[in-house]
Amino acid sequence: MSGQIAANCAGLTDEQSVTRISDHLRAFWTPVMIAELQAYDGEHPGELDPRVSTALGQLVA
Amino acid sequence: MTLLHEPDYGTPASTSPECIDVVVDGIPVSVPVGTSVMRAAADAGVGVPKLCATDSLQPFGSCRLCLVEIDGKKGTPASCTTPCEPGMVVRTQTPRVEELRRNVMELYISDHPLDCLTCPANGDCELQDMAGVVGLREVRYGYDGENHLDAPTDNSNPYFSFDESKCIVCSRCVRACDEIQGTLALTIVGRGFDSKVSPGGRSFFDSECVSCGACVQACPTATLEEKSVIDLGMPTRTVQTTCAYCGVGCSFNAELRGDELVRMVPAKDGGANEGHSCVKGRFAWGYATHTDRVLAPLVRESIDEPWREASWEEAIGFAADRIRDIQSRHGVDSVGGITSSRCTNEEVFVVQKMVRAAFGTNNVDTCARVCHSPTGYGLKQTFGTSAGTQDFKSVQEADVIMVIGANPTDAHPVFGSRMKRRLREGARLIVLDPRRIDLVRSPHIESDFHLQLQPGTNVAIVNAMGHVVATEGLIDREFIADRCDPVTFAAWEEFIRQPENSPEAVEAVSGVPAEEIRGAARLYAAGPNSAIYYGLGVTEHSQGSTMVMAMANLAMATGNIGRDGVGVNPLRGQNNVQGSCDMGSFPHELPGYRHVSDDAVREQFEALWGADLRGDPGMRIPNMLDAAVVGEFKALFVQGEDIAQSDPNTQHVQRALESMELVIVQDLFLNETARYAHVFLPGTSFLEKDGTFTNAERRINRVRPVMASKTGKQEWEVTCDLSAALGYPMHYDSSSQIMDEIAALTPTFAGVSFALLDEVGSVQWPCNAEHPLGTPIMHVEGFVRGKGAFQVTPFVPTDERTTRRYPLVLTTGRILSQYNVGAQTRRTANVAWHDEDVLDIHEADAEARGIADGTWVTIASRVGTTVMRAHVTDRVPPGVVYTTFHFPGSGANVITTEYSDWATNCPEYKVTAVEVTPTLRGPEATALAADAESVLA
After folding, report:
1. How close is the nearest chain B Cα to the Cα of A45, in Å?
2. Average pLDDT of each block of 10 consecutive residues along chain B (937 residues)?
3. In chain A, whose CA is at the least distance from the CA of B588?
4. CATH code reported for the domain at B153-289
5. CB contact under 8 A, B595 and A27
6. Does B333 reach chain A within 8 Å, measured CB to CB?
7. Is the ipTM of this complex over 0.90?
8. For B114-148, how does the pLDDT look when each residue is reduced to its tens digit (9 = 90+)?
9. CA–CA distance, B532 with B568 (Å, rounded to integer)
10. Chain B residues within an 8 Å CB radius of A1
11. Quick one: DSSP state of residue B903?
12. Numbered ranges of CATH 3.10.20.740 in chain B
C-alpha cells in the first residue's frame, strides 16, 4: 500500500513526495498501522520506497 | 393514475421569460409566451375537459375533448395544441363545444366496457371523470356494432396488466414511453378502427419495455393498471417518502389501504425524479413485507449453534457485555462498526456516534469504502468538498455529456431517462467504457465517441484528453486565472504536456485509437457546456482516486465547473451513499468531512456529546478484516450491509468474520454476513423508517414512515439502546431531534430541519444561513477550498495483470432489474427478468474455449473460483468478461482480489485477471449424475 502511495507521487519532487506521503499516512492510517510499517522498515532496510522510509522517519519526529 | 390528484395543467410549462395577457371565460390571466390555451385556462382556474393531454407530455391533440372557442378564430380548436396569443379571448364553455364534447365522449363510451363499478380504476379514472364533466347521459349508438370489448388482456408483466378492451388509444402511454422514459417500447399499430397500442407486436414482458411504470402512470383509464390495485383495491391514503434503491433518490407517494401498501406512485413534485420512476422504485417494494424478514432479535453463543430468539433487552445486553469483555481483553480498538448507505442519515449518525463515543474508537467505516470513497478523496483534494457539483436538472443545459464508467440506464434509470432526453434534443455524447452500454447506441441516441478502453486505463485516457486540451490551445485561461491555484495549475500543465501522456503514447496501453481520444478531447473542450457523469467504473480501481482528480483537472482546465450544464458528477450507487459519508462514517472524519485530528472541531463534538473523542484515524473496513485474521480485531457491528457478499475476496472476508468473537448484524434478512454473526438485530425497511436520505445531487429528502415499524423499534432506537447498555446513553425522542443535532454540528447542514423539509420538500446541502434553501450547483463563485487545486495524476497501472493462466479481464457491474447484493430485489418479482448472474463473454473468447451461449462456465482468478452461465455477446470486447454480483450463489466476489485504490482502499472490482472454462453444473450435471446413478443401480 505504501508503495502504491509512493508510485502515485510520480511527477513530484522527492521532497514533495515525502511531504505528501507523510501527510497521507497521518491523515488516513491508524497509529498502529504506521508503527507496524515503521517496524517493518527497520527490519527490512531498503525494501520500502526511499520516499516512504523518509516519510516514516518524519512521522517519528 | 394516482390517488393523490396533483394539479395537472394539461401541457408542460413554457420557460419563456416573456409574458402575454389573455382572457379565459372572462378571467384575465398573464402567461409565458408559448403557453397553451389549456394551460392558460388552468392558470385562470378553469378546467378544460381532456383525455390525451397531461402536463408531463407534449400536447398531442387527439382526443378532441378540449375544444374551445376563441374570439376571432374559426372553428373549435383543441386548447392543448393551440398556443396563446396576445389579447386572445377564450371561451371554454359554450353550447357548441359542450355538444361537441358530449358527442366525442359518446363515441368513446360506445366502445368501452360499462363495468365501472367493478373496474379496478373505479374512482381513479379520467374517462369516468370526463364522462361526468361533459354531462354524458346516453349513448345512442348501442353496443352491438363492431367494437373492442373482447380485446385480450396482456398479463405478462409481473407488475401491471394491459387490458386492451379499455384502451381509448389516446397515446399517452406511447408518448410517456417516448418522451419521459426514452425507451420507445410502445407504438400504435394498425389504422383507423384497428389502431391499438402495442409493445412492438409482442407481449409486454417480451418487448423492449423496462417496466418503469411511466405508461401506467400516464394511462387515463384502467387499461394499464397495477396488479396490486387490481388485487387489493383502490388505496385510501397517501404518504410521501423517498425510494431506498439507487442514489437518484426518487420521491414517491406511497398509497395504502390502512397499513397495507397498494402502490408506489412517483411524485410529480419530487426534486430528483419529477414524476418519473424505474422498475425497482415503482414496483419492487415487496421485499419490505417478505416472509424472509426477521422481526425479533436473535442471539447465539457461537456461529456453529442455531439462532435463538431473544428479547430486545437480552440481545442488547448480550452484545454490550461481549463488547466490553472483548475490549477489556484485547484493547479498546479491537472493536468497530460499519454504517450503511441504505439507512437514513439519522440512523448512520447515531451509529458513528456510538462507535466514537461509546466504543471509544474511530474504527467506523461505511460501505462507501467499496464504492465511492475515491470520490470523497479526489473531489476534496481538487474542489474542497466531497460531493458532486450539480443538480440532476443541470444535464438539461449540457451540450456535451461524458459518461465514464457508469451505466445510467441500468443503475440510475430515472436520471438515465433525463440524460437521454437531453441527448435526443441534440447534446453530444462521449462514453468511456470497456462495454458497449445501452447509451452507446439506443433509439435516437448514438455516442459521438465510444472510447472502449482496456479496463484499468481510465487515468491514461483522461490524462491524454488533458494533454490534447493543453497542447492544442484548448485551456480556458480566463477560468484558470480567476478560479484556480496558479502553482498547482502550472505543475499540472507541465506534467500533462509530457509526451507519455499523449494520445499516441496512450493508444498502446488503452487500446483506444489516438485520433478518437483527440476527437473526444476536442469535443469536450468545445462544449460550451460539458458535463462529466461517472460511476463505479471510475472509482473501483487501484487508481480510483487518481481518476477522480484527473476528471476534476479536465473540468477545471476547460472551465466546466460552477454553472448549469457542466460539472463533475458521481452517480452514487446506493440511496444514501452521499448521506452516510456526510454523517461522519469514515474513520478519519467527523460529520461534515472534518478530520478527527482537528482539535477545534473535536472539542465542539466533545462538548455536545459529553464524551472524549479520539484524534487519530481509525481502521477502514479492509484494515479491520486484516486485523481480524491476525487476531487483533474481535468485534464488529454491521448496520445494513452484507460484507460477506459485497466485499472483495469473499474467502478473506469469511476468514475475518469467523475469527471474531462477536459479530452484530442489523438487517432485514439473515444475509450472508449473518452466517458469521452472534447477534442479529432486526432492522426496518424504508417504509418504516423516519428520517432523511441524501441523494447523489446532495438533495436531502424526507423518508417518512409509511407504516409502523414491524420490529416495534426504529433502528436508531436500537442503536441508542446498545449505546446506553455500554454506559453511554444517547437521548433522543425522535429522529427529528437527531437531525437537529446534525445541523448543530455540521456547517453544511446548519439550516436543515424536518420542519424545513416538510415545508419545501427537499434541499441540497450546503443549506445554511448563506443558502437557506440549499445549493443546487456548487462552486459557482469560487471553489469550496478557495482556489481550485489541480493535481498531478500519473497513470500507475494496476498490479493485477493478465497472464497465460489468467488471460481475460473480469469487470463487474449492475443490471436494471437487480440491485447491489440482491437482498431486496431477489425477493421481488424482478427475478422474472434476471434470476441469476451470468458471464458476458465475447464470441471470439467463447469460441476459442468451446463455450456456447447459456452453458455453464467456471471463472477462476488467482484467489477463487465460481460458476455461472455464459452469455455470448459483442457488448464486451475480446479479452474482457463481465458479470453482476446480485446473487450469493454465483458469488462474483469470490474471484475479485485484494487490490485496492492507493488512497482509499476502495477495492479494484473492475479489474480481475481470470480464465473461463466450460464446466458441467446445474441441470446438465444433475442429469449426468442421475444417469450415472441409474447405471450403477
Report:
1. 22
2. 76 96 97 98 96 96 96 95 97 96 94 93 93 93 86 97 96 97 96 94 96 97 97 95 96 95 96 96 95 97 97 98 98 97 97 98 93 93 94 97 97 97 97 97 95 97 98 98 96 96 97 98 97 96 96 98 97 92 96 96 97 97 96 97 89 95 97 96 97 97 96 97 98 97 97 97 96 96 94 95 96 91 92 94 97 96 93 97 89 85 92 94 54 50
3. A28
4. 3.30.70.20
5. yes
6. yes
7. yes
8. 999 999 999 899 999 999 999 999 999 877 788 99
9. 5
10. 902, 905
11. T
12. 19-133
Nearest CA in chain B to A23: B903
Contact residues on chain B for A40, CB-CB shorter than 8 A: none
Task: From B228, B226, B185, select the one nearest B206 (Cα to Cα).
Answer: B185
With a CB-CB cutoff of 8 Å, which residues 2-41 of chain A face chain B? 4-5, 7-12, 24, 26-33
The CATH superfamily holding the domain B373-570 is Dimethylsulfoxide Reductase, domain 2 (3.40.228.10)
DSSP state of B134: T
Question: What confidence score (pLDDT) does residue B937 get?
Answer: 45
Q: Which three cell numbers stand for residue B476?
A: 480556458
B909 contacts B536 by C-beta, under 8 angstroms? yes
Contact B595 A24 (CB under 8 A): no
Q: Which of residues 53-82 of B touch A (CB under 8 A)?
A: none
Which residues of chain A have a CB within 8 Å of the CB of B495?
A: 11
Best probe of the A interface among B616, B798, B899, by most A CBs < 10 A, is B616
CA distance B894 to B311: 35
CATH no. of B298-371+577-764: 3.40.50.740
CATH dotted code for B19-133: 3.10.20.740
Is the CB of residue B278 less than 8 Å from the CB of residue B302? no
φ, ψ for residue B291, nearest 5 deg: -65, -15
Alpha carbon B741 to its chain centroid, in Å, reads 28
**Which amino acid, one-letter code, is at B549?**
M
Question: pLDDT tens digit string along B140-170?
Answer: 987 778 899 999 999 999 999 999 999 999 9
Closest-CA residue in chain A for B488? A12
Would you state the pLDDT for residue B185?
Answer: 97
pLDDT 10s digits, A27-53: 999 999 999 999 999 999 999 999 999
Fold of the domain built from segment(s) B808-928? Barwin-like endoglucanases (2.40.40)
Range B376-390 burial, b when 16+ CB lie within 10 A, else e: bbbbbbbbbbbbbbb
Distance, in Å, from the CA atom of B112 to the CA atom of B115, rounded to the nearest integer, reads 9
User: Which member of A4, A9, A33 has the closest CB to residue B623?
Assistant: A33
CB contact under 8 A, B902 and A29: no
